[in-house]
């Protein structure tokens, strides 16, 4: 893109950006969302305070004023279900911190941070005044990493509901006993022929749980009891996690596609369950990373064979039934690790690259005093759609390596097609973990980062 073309697009975008400070209650955004019943709220990092805060405020309005039934997040089903029981006054945890204590797997800070505690406290208080159980908002996980924990949950449910079925489940899940607590060892061993796989065993267990649930759905107007549905979902997690961990050691995008397809299937199953249980079409807010929620077909990831949750939602639901909101940032700080299973660190965010959508939005807000902006895209002739070639887009996950940023954290994307709207936070701050390592300090982070170019 020539400098003249970039300048023209930047100037046009300046007129399209809507400072959030001028609309603190998100009235304009809710107008853009319209009647959508699945609202997907992204994040450009897994460790930015503003992304959590803004998603919380948007979710509150959707729950209170639009009757949304649940927040579904990029987290494991058993851990999130413990939080859901707490916020719906259905469990013995005495605090939000306690309800979140199931989140022990790396990265803890994604859900054990001060912003999530505030959200959980609000949800519990809201539900205390909701009266009818159908009006109590839940908190559910979409992910599939909890192989062991989900198998234990299935057996715990069956021990109470059907001891004979519990014995069958123990026999099937015993197939995994040789892997200790690390399912990656299972994936490695089965992929390279070191041990038989357990695919048929987890599939049999899921089929049995599905058959039990079908006894309820076969009767008009009946819904699967919550506890059975929760156990059924844990059986689904175990089955799909088995496939995922085997796919991890295969070439291509198989493991990514298994994971996002599982998230889409879980969202669909949760929506169906809440619809039948509450007697009205369910509405759900989804929290996950931009890379999962922005339509993969508008990115180089999609060109390479990856699909994602945002794409599957758009494909599986009618136009207008979903709304995809992405988030971006130019500079600031972030909570992230330097390697997988590493400690949480307070890291400086490298200024966005000159050829990125983040830098374009940073340039567009020049001269404007606000730091947070909404850029509507769907139904608008946005200047962003007139960019002649896809720009780079940054994705910071649980690991952040500023020294290799171009290779490890950027991909080409057409953001105008990827999302229905964007929120840009020009200078962002790191989310505050509940457990802080020696590498996370409130002291100011020195700006000693590389150029990012």
- The structure class reads alpha/beta
Class of the largest domain in CATH?
Answer: Alpha Beta
Oligomer: single chain
Beta-strand residue fraction: 5-15%
| Share of helix, binned | 40-55%
How many distinct domains? 3
- List SSEs in N-to-C order: HEHEHEHHHEHHHHHHEHHHEEHEEHEHE
Q: Helix count, per DSSP?
A: 18
The CATH architecture term of the largest domain is 3-Layer(aba) Sandwich
Q: What is the CATH homology-level superfamily of the largest domain?
A: EreA-like (biosynthetic domain)
Number of strands: 11
Q: Would you tell me which CATH topology of the largest domain applies?
A: EreA/ChaN-like  fold
Gist?
With 453 residues, the protein is an alpha/beta fold. The protein has 18 helices and eleven strands.
Blueprint of the fold:
Blueprint: H1 3-16, E1 18-19, H2 27-33, E2 38-41, H3 49-66, E3 70-76, H4 77-87, H5 96-99, H6 114-128, E4 138-143, H7 147-161, H8 163-173, H9 183-191, H10 199-217, H11 226-247, H12 254-278, E5 284-287, H13 290-293, H14 300-303, H15 309-316, E6 322-336, E7 345-349, H16 357-364, E8 372-376, E9 391-394, H17 405-409, E10 410-413, H18 415-418, E11 421-428
Parallel strand pairs: 2-5, 2-6, 3-4, 3-5, 6-11
Antiparallel strand pairs: 1-8, 6-7, 8-11, 9-10
Helix pairs in contact: 1-16, 3-6, 7-8, 7-11, 8-10, 9-11, 10-11, 11-12, 12-15
